[in-house]
């Protein structure tokens, strides 16, 4: 098995609570130089993991936000034909119009290949893309090169990036795609883990506020027919709102008086379900 370079070992970051299993799969992915595919419901920290790795290893983070209609070429490079046309018509640019390379702009994957430093490349929400995009993208990441057809030039990675890929599991990924990645499912945090996460973000939080917000939060996640359950980021924003409200008292929560539901529930049907159930909730 490849040996881990001590300088490239990920042990968490200032605002990211890391469990042992996740630490192991991150570090073996670093050692094997394989993409790490993360699945889990929204708000479980998939995207934040890439930020944490970037911070911990002191590497630049490049983010490719995948769109449903995105073509792979957009992630690799763009040929700016409009600017070239304007330059040729008006002739007031310092660029040489006959040199197409002046009008080639690297996309996010191209940027991660073209830098002289090793970077973290986050490919966010890969499940939005079609299967061809997914498989063709991994071909590029396997080979660490791609062609710019307009100038007949091959771009080869100067350094292999650390590749983190996230999926909200809205649709299945292809078997070839899955076979070329390491995989980890980030489960929704249990209360004990969530307690650690909260204390990292709010080290001065009182025990009463911590205990009562946790109880209320997990009770609300159990409401039936909720489409989008509140996640970790909603909980942290909710606590931030409670702490900033001079009129709020913890005893409000214990009697089922739950303020700022709109921070926890972002869809109208979910919000209405929560309001209907709150009156019957006692901590």
Structure overview:
- It is a single chain.
- This protein is 43% helix and 13% strand.
- By secondary structure, the chain is α/β, with parallel strands linked by helices.
- The protein has two domains: 6-185, Rossmann fold; 191-278.
Strand order of the largest sheet: 2-5-8-1-9
Percentage of residues in strands: 5-15%
- Poorly predicted regions are none
H and E order:
HEHEHEHEHEHEEEHEHHHHHH
CATH topology of the largest domain: Rossmann fold
Nutshell version of this structure?
With 283 residues, the chain is an alpha/beta fold.
Secondary structure layout plus pairing:
Elements (H helix, E strand, L loop, with lengths): L19 H13 L3 E4 L6 H12 L3 E5 L6 H5 E3 L1 H10 L13 E3 L1 H7 L5 E5 L6 H13 L1 E4 L4 E4 L5 E6 L7 H5 L2 E4 L5 H11 L5 H15 L10 H13 L6 H4 L6 H4 L3 H11 L5
Parallel strand pairs: 1-8, 1-9, 2-5, 5-8
Antiparallel strand pairs: 3-4, 6-7
């Amino acid at each position: 098995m490849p040996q881990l370079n001590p300088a490239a070992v990920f042990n968490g970051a200032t605002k990211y609570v890391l469990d042992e299993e996740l630490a192991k799969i991150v570090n073996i992915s670093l050692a094997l130089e394989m993409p790490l595919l993360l699945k889990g419901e929204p708000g479980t920290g998939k995207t934040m993991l890439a930020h944490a790795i970037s911070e911990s290893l002191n590497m630049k983070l490049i983010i490719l936000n995948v769109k449903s209609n995105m073509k792979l070429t957009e992630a690799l490079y763009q040929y700016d034909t409009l600017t070239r046309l304007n330059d040729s018509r008006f002739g007031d640019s310092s660029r040489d119009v006959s040199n197409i390379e002046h009008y080639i702009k690297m996309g996010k994957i191209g940027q991660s290949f073209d830098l002289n430093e090793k970077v973290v490349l986050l490919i966010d929400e890969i499940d939005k893309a079609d299967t061809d995009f997914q498989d063709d993208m991994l071909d590029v990441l396997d080979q660490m090169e791609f062609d710019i057809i307009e100038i007949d030039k091959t771009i080869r990675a100067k350094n292999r990036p650390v590749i983190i890929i996230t999926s909200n599991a809205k649709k299945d990924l292809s078997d070839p795609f899955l076979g070329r990645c390491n995989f980890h499912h980030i489960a929704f945090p249990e209360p004990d883990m969530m307690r650690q996460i909260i204390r990292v973000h709010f080290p001065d939080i009182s025990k009463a506020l911590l205990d009562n917000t946790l109880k209320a939060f997990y009770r609300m996640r159990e409401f039936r027919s909720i489409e989008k359950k509140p996640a970790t980021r909603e909980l942290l924003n909710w606590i931030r709102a409670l702490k900033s409200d001079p009129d709020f008292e913890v005893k409000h929560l214990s009697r089922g008086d739950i303020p700022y539901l709109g921070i926890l529930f972002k869809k109208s049907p979910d919000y209405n379900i929560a309001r209907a159930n709150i009156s019957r909730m006692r901590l």
